Amino acid sequence: MYPFSFTKAANTREALKAGRSGGRYIAGGTTLVDLMRETVERPETLVDIADLPLRDLRVTERGGLLIGALVRMAEAAAHPKVRSLYPVISQALELSASAQLRNMATIGGNIMQRTRCTYFRDVTADCNKREPGSGCAALHGHHRTHAVLGTSDACVATHPSDVAVAFAALEATVHLLGPDGERRVPFADFLLKPGDTPNREHALRQGELITAVEILPLPRPLRSGYLKVRDRRSYEFALTSAAVALHVRGGVIRGAKVATGGVGTVPWKLPAVEQTLIGEHPSDRLWAEAARHAADGARPLPHNRFKVELLRRTVERQLRVVGGTK
Questions:
Q1: Which residue(s) pair with 128 in the sheet?
Q2: Contact 129, 198 (CB under 8 A)
Q3: What's the CA gap between 116 and 168, in Å, rounded?
Q4: pLDDT at residue 237 in the model
Q5: 187, part of any domain
Q6: Is residue 199 within 8 Å of residue 296, measured between CB atoms?
Q7: Is the CB of residue 5 less than 8 Å from the CB of residue 11?
Q8: Which range marks the domain in which residue 284 is found?
Q9: pLDDT at position 234, please?
Q10: For position 160, what pLDDT does the model report?
C-alpha cells in the first residue's frame, strides 16, 4: 500500500472542499481499501465521510423510497418498508457479500464498487480500465465470468453490484451534491458503459458526493424479487442475475421492470423483455417468450458463451417466480 493522508470531514462543506482538491471519499471502505492494498488504487488523500448526515431511509410523500448514501447494506435490507414495498432490493442486498461486509458497506459505496475482473486487479496485466491504452488482457485470456452485454473492444469487465441491478430495474434516481450544487441523475445514466474510455465508470463530477438513491413511486400492487445464479451458494459474484418487478391488475400485466446482472458491463435493463410482457396475461408461455429477448445484442467470447442461454433461463425463472404460473 502506498502512503496517503487521511482527513475526517465534520460536515458536507468540509467533504466537498476536500473532494474538490482531489481527495477520495471513503465510508465503509470495503472496496477501496482492498484496491489500495493491491496497489490498484493509489489515492493521495482519503476523506472519511462516515459522519455526514446521509443515513435517511424513508418512504417519500408520494410513496416512493429514499435511501441515504451512508445507509448500511444490512440496515437497508432489514428495513420493514424496504422488505414490504420493494423485496427485490432486500433480496439483492441479502445475496451480496458476507454478513460482516453488509454490516459495514454502504449503499453509495456499493454502487460505486469497481469490477472484480482479475486482470483489473492484477497490476502486472494489461487493463484499459486501470491504465488507458494498455489493452485488455481478458479478451485473449480467461474470460468465463466476463460480460456479454455492453462490451467493447477496450473492456469486457462486469459490474459486480447486486443491488445496482435492482436499482436499474426500478429506474432509480441518484442524488448528487457537488461544488456546483445538487443534481439528480437517472440510474441508467449514472454507470457508464466502457466504449473507448473504460476508465470512466460513472457520471460523478470532480468532488461530487452521492447523497441518496431514490425509487420513484410505482403503480400498486407491485410484485418483485431478485434471483442470483452463481458457481457456489455462499459469498460469490453472479454469473447471471435477474431483478423483476411486475404490476399486475385484473389478471393483466400493466407494468414490467426487468434488469439483469453478471452479464453486463453495467447493470443491464431489458426493455424488449418488458415490452413483451405489458398488456399480456401471466402464463408460462409468456415468460418463455419474453425471456427469449433477454440476451438480445449479446457478444459472447469463447469462454462465456454459456451465459447467453443461462441468462435466458435466469430471466424466465424469475418471471415465473414473481408473476406466477397458469
A1: none
A2: yes
A3: 19
A4: 95
A5: no
A6: no
A7: no
A8: 223-323
A9: 81
A10: 96
- C-beta atoms surrounding 218 within 10 Å: 18
pLDDT for the residue 61: 86
- Separation CA 118–CA 87 (nearest Å): 32
Q: Which amino acid, one-letter code, is at 265?
A: T
Return phi, psi of residue 22, to 5°.
105, 0
pLDDT per position as a tens digit, 246-274 = 999 999 999 999 999 999 999 999 999 99
Cβ contacts of 25 within 8 Å, gap of 6 or more: 15, 19, 47, 49, 209
SS (HEC) of 198-233: CCCCECCCCCCEEEEEEECCCCCCCEEEEEEECCCC
- At 200 the pLDDT is 97
Q: What are phi and psi of 134, to 5 degrees?
A: -85, -20
**Total structural domains in the chain?**
1
| Cα four-point dihedral sign 162, 299, 308, 122 | negative
Structural domain contains residue 164: no
- Domain CATH for 272: 3.30.390.50
- At 1 the pLDDT is 73
* Residues of the chain where predicted confidence (pLDDT) is lower than 70: 326
Segment (H or E) for 68: strand 65-68
Residue 153 lies in a domain: no
Rounded to 5 degrees, what are φ and ψ at 46?
-105, 135
Residue 22 lies in a domain: no
